[in-house]
Design brief:
The complex is a heterotrimer. By secondary structure, chain A is mostly helical. Chain A has helices at residues 13-53, 60-73, 76-81, 97-128, 150-180, 194-208. Chain A has one domain. Chain A starts with 12 loop residues before the first helix and ends with a helix. The radius of gyration of chain B is 23 Å and the shape is globular. Chains in contact: A-B, A-C, B-C. The structure holds sodium ion (NA) (2 copies).
């Protein structure tokens, strides 16, 4: 589950950078949430328009497909900050101290390799749909009402770049913990066993009532 | 090295990374990227001069997947269903449902537990996520059960099991994911989940009543509600009926002249719940946290989806699903025995994996094999191994697999629903919940056996839809 | 040995028979030295087949112009409404004449793609529920599932184009989200819209989609002369096989209509002329203006369609 693990904070440069990036990540996640809301508002308009005025929202499907990358990608870095991407931690949760930081460092490093490659790959996907010389800079358009696709395609490399920055901070955090042999490093999600994580999630729900 | 060999090595490597604790989405994406590179490089005979070309083609091919796969109208149901759950919570629908269920049905043996099961089933009709349902009801139902003398483990088990109903009774995020992976009609699958979901709830309730009658101290009946008290409990729960009616009208289309398509129905249901939450005084602060929580859960699910689909794209180039399917159909065992083995394998895998991760990882290979086992996508019922057409087999297998995935949510050692319930109630340990939920394994076992033996339970509604 | 991958989508069906036939012929002619492996959806999403060709992920692909007009503006001329194409043979002749134009080759060249052959589709006649609509006035307020230029055409006579994915077309008809659906016959069969239909327009012939098969230029140039010859020489036979196969399907279509009790609606010539005047001319003029602004020889491309059609009919 996307439960949020604790991320410790202090006055160090790393922690300050962590919190600065967090602001950006929270903003992007909010954009994604607003996108979900737009989706349901659009359905209401489309259904209402069709049934009440015989005027369906033109290109309803096209607009949904345009909104999906915003919804799907923009929260990715916030989830990574909180250690919320699903994993099996049966093995990892048995490690302690330097061994744990080494495993986490390696894991984050592999993700960084993947994401840097994907920033390249998704940017090239965007670039194929973008043309300075074409009307609306568009070289790829939606099927029904011909909306340019490049803005939606650009969202992937943008979100993945933010995630890459987050991964660099986490490498720094784990690397520091590994070298200095820290018990409670800042700016990385602290490993919790799943039960603790669920408790944190529950506390979060409680806080809302 | 031929493509099948590459496919097997890369898959093994991915599993090692997953076991070592790498985030599943990224382990799958990385495996897919490396696999694509190996496939393209092998086309050039592993000539060192062509490494650069192979890397470029692999990266660009993988780079298409996230945008391409995520831009789908059907997938838009997932964030919609998640938002519905959060909004329903703010609209106070959860508590209202439980209260109504309690006053109407708690008079049977094990009454409060039975009420909890039916309230979770009712909430399942607006919520698309099992874990969220378990979390919400753990806070409302468990304290009441303990207060009137229920065994606390049993009370926790009831909620953990009841939560799993949310993924069978539509709307359901996981059924949508299944439909996307296997490219089947979302509406028909959601329709198919309804009876098995309600059936599961009835089996749970029967089990609880049986236990309560044998072990008198497990759960006393709650009597003494007046008809007046019962009637006043209904109006607050009524909005949920409104949402269910909307979804029924769009998804099931009972009178042949409904208002829209299933995807619109899901979104419109969310919009109505939003209006209700507003009417209940939801402010921007609460709305904002509902949106951010939705965004986080959505990002997590979609990262898995596109990460695994990069791996699946590689499988396509390696033609591994074709090979696996050829192997399965070449086995000389009876098809039904093979299917049961596959379901048992899911039960074992599910002990260690999350439900969504498990489905997304396995279905691209397993689904074509099961379809081939039945006689292919286009087979007629009369010529098939399981006595149903290709389309119906896809639906039936989907419900079976989702029921297995739900079963995983309550089996140790990784049973997310149990962790969540234990997390909500600090005086309950995870072991307590796992012990309390054990009787429900029997109920789920019975349900799955019946769904396998009598496919009509699953296929009755979709077959009406033509 | 040369191994090519061809990316198509869906299942093996009439629409992919020429690719299958081509693979068979090429392999035969080269004694299995040159093989084409046809993949149904495993390598790419249909909308991104051109991207895959440019990347070099696979060597051959099929796509439809209307999926992404901005990727291939030049061949959208073939999707203009009411071009007057009546048979698959005419569709082949017209398409290949357009494909041969250098401006079209340049347009697809941006994707490192070379047009090999077309996948001729019959006209997208509509099926509908309720009383048959055989007069223009009855198209007013009609909710029709039709994309791109076809949707535009119905709009000119008061129709309301409504977006639903092909896979939801059946649901949309059943639930009254749309009154009518425009598809080729094989799609009416495979998406089940024919099962909900009360009538079908036999002669409306509003237009069709254009779905070429392309090859990656680098891969094509890298072929040995014998393999290249094997490929080039198999195109006509593959297309002939496709047309033959599809025409059999069209014959079955008549039986299906009868079996399901679907009324065949014939629209009068006056009504058709009125529709053409309202839809065909303005949409074509707009298309020519837009494409000329992009630097394409739009008028010339349109003229090629008209003259090829005349020649084709004169020849028969
Ligand atoms: Na549900
Ligand atoms: Na489990």
């Amino acid at each position: 589950m996307a439960g949020s693990a604790a991320v410790l904070e202090d006055d160090s440069l790393l922690s300050r950078l962590d919190r600065t990036l967090l602001k950006l990540e929270s903003f992007l996640a909010l954009l994604s949430g607003i996108g979900v809301f737009a989706l349901i508002a659009m359905a209401a308009i489309s259904v209402g328009g069709r049934n009440l005025f015989n005027a369906p929202l033109p290109g309803y499907v096209d607009w949904i497909e345009q909104a999906m990358p915003l919804i799907a990608f923009m929260g990715i870095s916030l989830v990574q900050r909180e250690g919320g991407h699903i994993r099996m931690d049966i093995v990892v949760s048995r490690f302690r101290g330097r061994a744990l930081w080494a495993v986490e460092f390696l894991g984050v490093f592999l993700i960084l390799v993947l994401m840097v490659m994907l920033v390249w790959g998704t940017y090239s996907h965007f670039q194929r749909s973008f043309d300075w010389a074409a009307p609306m800079w568009s070289r790829d358009s939606s099927i029904d009402i011909g909306i340019p696709l490049w803005p939606a395609k650009l969202l992937a490399p943008v979100a993945f770049s933010v995630l890459s920055v987050r991964l660099v901070l986490q490498l720094w955090g784990y690397g520091r913990a590994l070298v200095l042999g820290l018990d409670n490093p800042v700016a990385v999600p602290m490993i919790q066993d799943v039960a603790e994580q669920a408790a944190a999630e529950a506390r979060q729900l409680d806080g809302r009532e | 090295m031929d493509s099948i060999t590459i496919g097997l090595w890369v898959t093994a490597g991915m599993l090692v990374l997953v076991v070592l604790g790498m985030r599943v989405a990224f382990a799958a994406g990385l495996a897919g990227l490396i696999g694509l590179f190996m496939i393209f490089w092998s086309k050039k005979g592993f000539d060192p001069e062509d490494i650069g070309w192979a890397v470029t083609v692999a990266v660009k091919t993988a780079g298409q997947v996230p945008h391409s796969k995520v831009s789908s109208q059907a997938l838009s149901l997932i964030p919609t269903f998640i938002l519905i759950g959060y909004l329903a919570y703010y609209a106070g629908l959860t508590r209202a449902l439980f209260e109504a269920a309690k006053r109407w049905i708690a008079w049977v043996p094990g009454g409060l537990a039975v009420s909890t099961v039916f309230a979770t089933a009712g909430f399942a009709a607006v919520s698309g996520a099992s874990v969220a349902t378990a979390a919400v009801f753990a806070r409302i139902a468990i304290p009441e059960m303990i207060a009137i003398g229920y065994n606390k483990r049993f009370a926790a088990g009831v909620v953990a099991a009841g939560g799993t109903l949310a993924s069978l009774i539509p709307p359901s995020a996981i059924l949508v994911i299944y439909a996307i992976i296997v490219e089947q009609d979302v509406g028909k699958l959601l329709l198919a989940g309804f009876i098995p979901g309600a059936f599961s709830a009835v089996v749970y309730a029967a089990l609880i009543i049986g236990i309560a009658m044998v072990f008198k101290n497990v759960g006393p009946a709650v009597k003494g509600f007046t008809w007046r008290e019962r009637l006043v409990a209904l109006p607050p729960a009524l909005p949920i009926v409104a949402v269910v009616v909307i979804i029924v009208f769009f998804v099931y289309n009972p009178f042949g002249d409904a208002w829209g398509t299933p995807t619109e129905g899901g979104a419109l249901g969310a919009f109505v719940v939003f209006l209700m939450a507003l009417a209940r005084g939801m402010r921007w602060g609460e709305m904002k946290s509902a949106l951010i929580e939705t965004a986080k859960l959505t990002a997590m699910i979609f990262t898995i989806i596109w990460g695994v689909l990069i791996y699946v794209r590689f499988l396509g180039f390696a033609d591994l699903p074709g090979a696996f399917s050829d192997w399965i159909t070449s086995l000389t065992m009876p098809p039904m025995l093979i299917l049961i083995c596959i379901l048992l394998a899911y039960a074992v895998l599910g002990m260690f994996m999350d439900a969504i991760g498990m489905l997304v990882l396995t279905l691209p290979v397993v689904y074509p094999a099961v379809m081939a086992l039945n006689g292919g996508e286009a087979v007629a019922a009369a010529d098939s191994a399981f006595g149903m057409s290709g389309t119906m087999c896809a639906i039936w297998f989907g419900i079976l697999v989702v029921k297995m995935a739900e079963f995983c949510l309550i089996t140790p050692p990784i049973g997310l629903n149990c962790f969540v319930v234990a997390g909500v109630q600090p005086d309950l340990s995870v072991q307590d919940v796992f012990r309390g939920v054990t009787p429900f394994f029997i109920a789920d076992g019975i349900t799955i056996a019946l769904l396998v033996a009598f496919p009509a339970i699953v296929l009755y509604l979709p077959s009406l839809a033509g | 040995a040369t191994e090519w991958n061809a990316s198509v989508w869906g299942k093996r069906r009439a629409f992919t028979e020429h690719v299958e036939k081509l693979a068979e012929l090429v392999s035969e002619k080269t004694d299995g030295e040159f093989t084409i492996n046809v993949s149904y959806g495993g390598l790419s999403k249909p909308r991104e087949n051109l991207d895959g060709i440019e990347i070099g992920a696979f060597e051959m692909a099929q796509f439809c112009a209307g999926y992404h007009a901005d990727k291939n503006p030049s061949i959208t001329v073939l999707e203009l409404p009411f071009l007057g194409v009546n048979t698959l043979e005419e569709e082949v002749a017209v398409s290949h004449a357009v494909y041969d134009h250098p401006a079209v080759a340049d347009d697809l060249g941006r994707w490192n793609a070379k047009l090999l052959m077309t996948s001729p589709m019959p006209q997208y006649n509509i099926v509908g529920t309720g009383d048959p609509r055989d007069e223009l006035a009855e198209f007013d307020g009609m909710r029709v599932r039709a994309t791109g230029g076809l949707g535009e055409a119905f709009k000119t006579v008061g129709g309301v184009p409504t977006s639903v994915p092909a896979t939801e077309a059946y649901n949309a008809m059943e639930s009254g989200v749309v009154d009518t659906v425009a598809f080729a016959p094989h799609a009416h069969l495979s998406f089940g819209t024919i099962n909900r239909a009360d009538w079908w327009t036999a002669n409306l012939n509003p237009g069709t989609v254009n779905c070429p098969v392309v090859v990656n230029v680098d891969a094509y140039e890298a072929l040995s002369p014998e393999h290249k010859e094997a490929l080039d020489s198999s195109v006509d036979e593959a297309i002939a096989h496709y047309v033959d196969n599809y025409n059999q399907l069209l014959k079955r279509w008549e039986d299906v209509l009868e079996e399901k009790g679907v009324t065949k609606v014939e629209i009068s010539d006056e009504q058709l002329d009125a529709f053409r005047a309202k839809a065909a001319d303005p949409i074509r003029e707009q298309w020519i203006a837009d494409m000329s602004a992009q630097g394409l020889p739009a008028q010339e491309l349109y003229d090629i369609v008209v003259t090829t059609l005349q020649e084709q009919r004169a020849g028969n």
